[in-house]
Each structure stands twice: as C-alpha cells, then as structure tokens.
Automatic annotation (TrEMBL):
This is Plasmid stabilization system protein ParE. It comes from the Bacteria. Keywords: Toxin-antitoxin system. The lineage of its organism: Bacteria, Pseudomonadati, Pseudomonadota, Alphaproteobacteria, Rhodobacterales. InterPro entries: RelE/ParE_toxin, RelE/ParE_toxin_dom_sf. It comes from Roseovarius nanhaiticus.
C-alpha cells in the first residue's frame, strides 16, 4: 500500500479561506494557481522531494510535527508511517511558534 496525504478539517478550512481571500484579492485564476502550488508542496512532502524542518526548534516536545514554506504560507504536518497528515496551512506572517504550541496542545488533548 502506498502512502498518501490527507488534510485535517483545520487544514481544509485554511485552504478554503486562502482560496476565498485570493479570489477576492487576485481573482479566480490566481486562486486556482496558488491552491495548486500548495497542494503540489504537499505532494512534494509525500514524495520526499520537499525538505521540511522540525517544529521542535520552535516549541519544546514538538518533535513529530514538521513545517515547510509554500509560497506565502507554512504547511504544518505530521509525517506518519502510513500517511502525511497536513495539520494546518498558516500565513508566513503568523506567529508560527504560537500556532505550533496551540496545535500541540490540541494533540495532547486528543482533539
């Protein structure tokens, strides 16, 4: 069985919001291009072609959470043996450490 990637509901909601904002700001054509760029980055993570960084440098005990830059966003994910789980897609101007800490708190609560 080959591995795949999946988006959490949080990541799906972020992708929808990114598309909405991009349509309003740059139009539908650019929105489709940017969405494809983000999803291609997810494919790159899956294939091993995209080099990510551990979130442990940002938040203590976030060793299994990783991130990678994709355009003006960060794709935050768990690299699990059976699949890549895209946890969220965050704007590059966000406080990444704060968001990673919140994601780790959710994980620890079992959400």
């Amino acid at each position: 069985m080959s591995r795949s990637f999946r988006l959490t509901r949080r990541a799906e909601a972020s992708l929808v919001e990114i598309a909405r904002w991009t349509i309003e700001t740059f139009g539908p054509r650019q929105s489709k291009l940017y969405e494809a760029e983000l999803l291609n980055r997810c494919e790159g993570i899956l294939s091993g072609a995209a080099h990510s960084r551990s979130c442990a440098a940002l938040v203590n005990q976030a060793d299994d959470l990783r991130f990678i830059r994709a355009g003006e966003h960060f794709v935050v994910f768990w690299d699990q043996p059976e699949e890549i789980v895209i946890v969220d897609i965050l704007h590059s101007r966000c406080d990444l450490s704060c968001h990673v800490a919140a994601l780790m708190a959710l994980k620890n609560e079992g959400v």
